[in-house]
Design brief:
Order of helices and strands: EEHEEEHHEEEEEHEHEEEEEEHHEEHE
Structural class: alpha+beta
Number of strands: 20
Strand content: 25-35%
Radius of gyration: 36 Å
Helix content: 10-25%
Distance between the termini: 65 Å
Largest sheet: 5 strands, mixed
Shape: rod-shaped
């Protein structure tokens, strides 16, 4: 904002304490006074310079002589905003209301940003809640106290009170900001800035700051899921399934017959498919995910019997398929191990998969639920 070059005062205060503009006061014989220092003002209504008020040197004292344009502007702004509040039927304030997903407070998947929330523009009429404007009011906060330029308040309900601060040269003190009181700070450098305030709704911007305003979050039940997830399920029957599709809102829908559910959020890093990148031992694939889930179920004490963990499992590289060493001609079904009398856990393979999953969990978001 550019500072005003002209320093004429175009407003003064009547004996009744009412702000008057030079255009309205020039024909009146009523004395006018400076809003800040109280010195009697002269009405300069000539033909060369724009009409304005000037301090009457005949009534100046040491205090009057120190009255600056900035001091005048600060006092004028307070009186103008007080008059605006008292004469307005409504004063509209625009603010941003945070809207969040119903699971946002304990979401496993969201990052550090605001991807699971949004801001909606809201409007409130302050005159609905606030009825009185007090000038230079002392505000008490616990054992502390400070003076507000203006206090817009309701004598019967102080929870919605708003402190109004005028910034000409100095911003709101840190003590006031830390008080958790609702504060609106208006930055002004000219009479026109003040006029702009009273002729517009209140909205936070470079010259209007809100402090202590913390609108309650609204939960949006219909907010769409943002993340697609994959789930491993180990059932009470001993069967297992990897790659069940779900999302960040539905992954909590547990299967009634499940003993263990492992949900992961896949990404390019975890898939190990970055250009030129070798696939790491803990890189993700559906087959590996199944082995991880089985190993985790075993580590939690479940009686896991699955051909993927059996010592008799064999991979035929020419045919690119798994077979059972004991039954090489029969179709390979991982669930055969449930009733197989020759099932034997391959301990090294089990521990390797468990370790790989633990390394994966350190660098990726994982949810593990078990019925224990």
């Amino acid at each position: 904002m550019k500072y005003e070059n002209r320093k004429e005062q175009h407003y003064a205060v009547s004996k009744g304490g009412v702000l008057v503009h030079i255009n309205d006061a020039h024909d009146s014989k009523e004395d006018c006074f400076c809003p800040h220092c109280g010195c009697r003002m002269l009405k300069r209504c000539g033909n060369i310079r724009a009409w304005h008020f000037a301090h009457d040197y005949r009534f100046e004292n040491e205090f009057n002589k120190k009255c600056s344009y900035e001091s005048y502007l600060h006092s004028f702004a307070k009186l103008k905003l007080k008059q605006w509040f008292e004469e307005s039927e409504s004063i509209l304030l625009h603010y941003q209301q945070p809207v969040v997903c119903k699971y946002s407070t304990d979401c496993n998947w969201k990052g550090n940003g605001n991807e699971c929330s949004r801001l909606e523009e809201k409007t409130v009429d302050l005159k609905t809640y606030l009825t009185v404007c007090r000038l230079e009011e002392i505000v008490h906060v616990n054992d502390d106290r400070f003076r507000a330029d203006l206090l817009w308040c309701n004598p019967y309900n102080s929870k919605n009170d708003i402190l109004i601060e005028i910034k000409v040269t100095h911003e709101c003190t840190q003590k006031k900001k830390d008080s958790h009181k609702r504060i609106i700070e208006f930055e002004v450098h000219s009479e026109q800035d003040v006029e702009n305030i009273v002729n517009n709704n209140i909205q936070e911007c470079d010259t209007v700051k809100f402090y202590g305003f913390t609108p309650k979050e609204i939960v949006d039940e219909a907010m769409p899921a943002r993340y697609s997830l994959s789930k491993f399920i180990y059932y009470r029957t001993g069967k297992a399934f990897a790659g069940s599709a779900c999302d960040c809102k539905t992954f909590r829908n547990r299967r009634k017959s499940a003993l263990l559910e492992v949900t992961i959020m896949e990404n390019r890093h975890s898939l190990g498919v970055l250009f030129g990148q070798e696939r790491s031992p803990e890189a993700f694939s559906l087959g590996r995910f199944c082995n991880w889930g089985l190993a985790l179920a075993k580590s939690k004490g479940f009686d896991v019997r699955n051909c993927c963990l059996c010592i008799h499992r064999h991979y035929d590289y020419e045919e690119e398929k798994f077979t059972c060493e004991l039954k090489p001609d029969e179709p390979f079904e991982v669930s055969h191990a449930i009733s197989c009398g020759n099932y034997k856990l391959e301990e090294d393979f089990y521990h390797k998969n468990l370790n790989d999953f633990n390394r994966f969990s350190q660098n990726n978001k994982v949810d593990v639920w078990s019925k224990t």
